[in-house]
Design a protein that fits this description.
Elements lengths: L29 E6 L3 H5 L1 H10 L6 E6 L4 H6 L6 E7 L2 E7 L2 E6 L4 H9 L5 E4 L19 H8 L7 H15 L5 E4 L6 H16 L1 H10 L5 E4 L7 H11 L7 E3 L4 E5 L15 E3 L3 H24 L5 H5 L2 H14 L11 H12 L8 H5 L2 H18 L7 H14 L14 H9 L4 H12 L8 H25 L7
Parallel strand pairs: 1-2, 1-6, 2-5, 3-9, 6-7, 10-11
Antiparallel strand pairs: 3-4, 8-10
Bound molecules: D-mannonic acid (CS2).
Length: 492
């Protein structure tokens, strides 16, 4: 028997327990183009926009763009862009069907249509969740001008592949047509994400024309934002469960937790939805909340992922229930908290108490391997920055550097105690070649730092390398148990 698909027309079939957009979707016009329409976007920004649309702000529908794969479009197009958001906790699961994504485009198949959507005068905001690695930064932090996709996009402005190419070309076309620029709202876990993208885009545009670079540098707003919601990858078991609850099939429901946070710098010359009415915090400077999130949530997440993987834990909740890992995370927070701004009113005690509850959510089954991906792109802002600042302030951070060592050890464990492609990293080819050489531990660590650009230009680099190397020796000799025991943390 074929089950019917979730769509505008099967709305009547949904059980009363599932929330459904009550607004007229036909009356919504597009106002936002989102680049990177993956599960995170659908659990976060699209849900906030859904609330705005339901409240009558009808000009802010979303055109979702995938920069690489057609999977999301193929799953959602037959569903009129509708999908289920399953909010899971030990208390149960709440289902909500989200209607804010009006249409979807797959950039490699139709770059012209993506440029047309970006150039449409109704598009006033472009949001991005393209993951850390898609910003194409070199180890030095600047734009990786040797990347094949950057080279391609400079030579083919009409059919770009990268976010850089799409944004620059559409901003150039809007300018030529006399259409005001859209606001670029970065929603990736990068420090000063708006400013970082602004800088990279200006660098890219310089390679096209100094005039365009000036326009982007001076005439386009790039507010920074901090986004937060844990979104484990959807499994087939999730699909089957949601279908049986809804009575219709949803090819790609999104799993998430009850917690949701968005803090945005309020700089939208082309207008914006009244997000503050729907739980978004509008601020003049996002940096304090962003540092707190990157260093306490994401830093702990990476610690749990790598130590968890090395200890045989598949999910965050199981790793976090391991008393030794739990103690380690508490100690990591003690080291990282003093690096956060003191006068910004951050309540770190409340924040870490909430994190403790969130990481313990057994209903999420958030896989450690999912978080382990792309460590070379994540650790600089999650772990390295706070460690360097601790050392510079005269403290001796013993715990933070273990996360870097655990990342190196987990990378090396792939194909041995972990499945070969259990997680991946854009630097894998060079990283694995390096880890395959039989170098002394400190030399290995220094070479990894060079490759990934960790702490380059920082006087603290050598001290940090020595800390990491000491931990790596312990991990290699006796696994996480020995490395943690050396810190006075013993498994019970
Ligand atoms: C996680 C994040 O996969 C990861 O690296 O640390 O995706 C994390 O779940 C989100 O940032 C939470 O907002």
């Amino acid at each position: 028997m074929t089950t019917r698909r979730l769509s505008n027309s099967t709305r009547q079939a949904l059980p009363a327990s599932a929330a459904f957009p009550l607004y007229d979707r036909g009356g919504i016009t597009p106002g936002i183009v989102h680049l990177g329409v993956g599960a995170f976007h659908r659990a976060h920004q699209a849900a906030y926009v859904d609330d705005c649309l339901a409240a009558g702000e009808t000009g802010w529908g979303i055109v979702g763009v995938s920069l690489r794969s057609a999977d999301t479009r193929d799953a959602l197009a037959p569903q009129d862009g509708l999908y289920t958001l399953a909010v899971r906790s030990s208390g149960g699961e709440n289902l909500r069907v989200v209607g804010s994504i009006l249409s979807m485009l797959v950039a490699p198949q139709e770059p012209g249509a993506v440029l047309a959507a970006l150039t449409d005068p109704r598009t006033r905001i472009v949001t991005l969740t393209i993951t850390e690695k898609a910003y194409l930064r070199a180890a030095s932090g600047g734009l990786d001008t040797t990347h094949p996709d950057i080279i391609h996009d400079l030579g083919n402005p009409q059919a770009p592949r990268t976010a850089h190419g799409f944004l620059t070309e559409s901003l150039s076309r809007r300018r030529a047509a006399g259409t005001p620029p859209f606001t670029v709202l970065c929603c990736d876990n990068l420090p000063a994400n708006g400013a970082t993208l602004h800088r990279l885009l200006a660098e890219f545009a310089t390679l096209r024309s100094p005039d365009l670079a000036r326009h982007i540098a001076d005439g386009v707003a790039f507010p920074s934002s901090m986004v937060d919601r844990i979104v484990p990858a959807t499994t087939d078991a999730d699909r089957a469960r949601i279908a049986s609850q809804l009575g219709v099939e949803d090819a790609w429901p999104v799993m998430t937790e009850p917690f949701c946070q968005w803090v945005i710098e309020d700089d939208f010359p082309a207008g914006r939805p009244a997000w503050e009415k729907f739980g978004v915090t509008m601020v003049s400077d996002v940096r304090p909340s962003e540092d707190m999130k990157l260093r306490l949530l994401n830093g702990a997440h990476s610690a749990i992922a790598y130590l968890g993987l090395l200890s045989g834990h598949d999910t965050v909740d199981r790793a976090f229930a391991d008393p030794a890992i739990r103690q380690f995370v508490d100690a990591l927070w003690v080291e990282a908290i003093p690096t956060l701004p003191k006068d910004a009113g951050l309540d770190t005690a409340d924040y870490t108490a909430q994190l403790t509850e969130r990481f313990s959510n057994t209903a999420l089954a958030h896989r450690t391997a999912q978080i382990a991906n792309d460590g070379s792109q994540k650790l600089p802002q999650r772990i390295v920055a706070s460690t360097v600042e601790c050392i510079a302030a005269g403290a001796l951070p013993e715990h933070l550097p273990l996360v870097v060592a655990a990342w190196i050890a987990a990378c090396a464990a792939r194909g041995k105690t972990l499945p070969e492609r259990h997680f991946t990293d854009p630097l894998d080819a060079a990283l694995m070649a390096l880890l395959g050489r039989d170098l002394p531990t400190e030399e290995t660590v220094a070479a990894v730092f060079d490759l990934a650009g960790f702490a380059s230009d920082h006087a603290e680099r050598q001290t940090l390398i020595e800390f990491v190397a000491t931990h790596l020796v312990h991990l290699r000799q006796g696994g996480p148990a020995l490395a943690l025991a050396a810190l006075g943390i013993r498994s019970e």
